[in-house]
Specification:
Blueprint lengths: L3 E4 L1 H9 L5 H10 L10 E2 L6 E5 L2 E8 L4 E9 L6
Parallel strand pairs: 1-5
Antiparallel strand pairs: 2-3, 3-4, 4-5
């Protein structure tokens, strides 16, 4: 079952601000969420209904809606700044 992946506008802007070398890696990880929204190493965040995956020193925060078969990417950023 393939999920539909939506990237919010705020997350798109954050991705475009990243180094050009990491952007394809981040986009590849996001597109991989369509096939498996709960990949190895994913983690449920405490206090919110969201998950995160690690991509090198960066984090992708997203929500999963199993009823609508969608994944919504909320934010993307460096591990030191993403949880603030």
């Amino acid at each position: 079952m393939t999920y539909t992946v939506f990237v919010e506008r705020y997350a798109q802007k954050q991705i475009m601000k990243l180094d050009r070398k990491i952007i394809p890696v981040i986009k590849n990880a996001i597109s991989g969420l369509a096939e498996n929204p709960r990949p190895k190493g994913y983690k449920k965040l405490k206090g919110v209904d969201a998950y995160r995956i690690r991509v090198r020193d960066f984090r992708i925060i997203y929500e999963i809606d199993d009823t609508k078969i969608t994944v919504i990417v909320i934010t993307v950023g460096h591990r030191k700044e993403i949880y603030k």
